[in-house]
Model the fold of this input.
Amino acid sequence: MKCYKCNGSDSMLKIVYLDKNNKKLSDREFSAYRIMHPELKESFQQVAMCGICMDSDGNGNQVQYSTLASKLNKRKKVKKHENYYVCPFCDTANEPLRNTCKQCDRILFSTQYETKRINGVSALKRKKGRKLWYVFSLLFVATVLYYFLPMGADKPMFLQTDFSEKVSSNVTKLTESKYTWADGSKYVGKSLNGKPHGEGKLEWANGDVYTGEFSYGEITGYGTYKSANGSIHVGSRVNGKPNGEGEMKWSNGNEYTGEFTNGDITGYGTFRYSNGNTYIGTLHKGTPHGNGILYQADGATFEGQWVDGRLQ
Done:
């Protein structure tokens, strides 16, 4: 295999996806883009690139990330971006391609609640407004306590001069960790207070492998789960079970793209069978149930209400 740009041979070629403007997306970014933006029909080209071409712009020039002009251009692009998502739990505006809230670590997308979308300008205003609100609130509380506390009373911690020292002793940071259990299972990745938290990889003794996001010891977030039996799931998980948008492939050739609910294929999606048939519509526990249409490999089409896999 040769590089798409320079046509050179390299053992470290990486697979990327190019849009119509030749913008590069990694495999994970491309999967997230398809799940988060199903309404867009933009086509992408899958190519292989060497390390030099990966770090160069469309004209072959090396990208200088540290220049002031580059930083200003990034700021302008952020302001024009239309895909900031507001967390329905803590009202935090999250950047594109995030699947969990950066403030409360909860899942942003689910069939059980609606996640609002705002543009980059509104997101920056929210961020600035929230910071100002925090500052004024802290000043107001500090002023009230300072003037109304009885003489000789102990002041709260945020009015004491050694505030930074007391807070720093209670802060716990994410650390890179490696864990091995008695049955042979292994974990490599970030951890918090001795539990997997953030990006990591978990390998079970039976051959199952999960690579993706963890939350306080639970497999909660976006990731890829490869089972020893050959099945692969890519998408959102909550407490170890597929929940929300995702893709599933089985060793027998069946494929599914759509909604999962508590580990089951329940919701709206597309199921492609190994015999060539394709079903598009609602399903319940992997079986057509509700409004949908079945396209058979021989050209026949069946559309209507389905109950437990049978057309009514």
Summary: The radius of gyration is 25 Å. The helical segments are 27-36, 51-54, 68-80, 120-148, 163-168. The chain has three domains: 1-56, 70-152, 175-311. The longest strand covers residues 195-203.
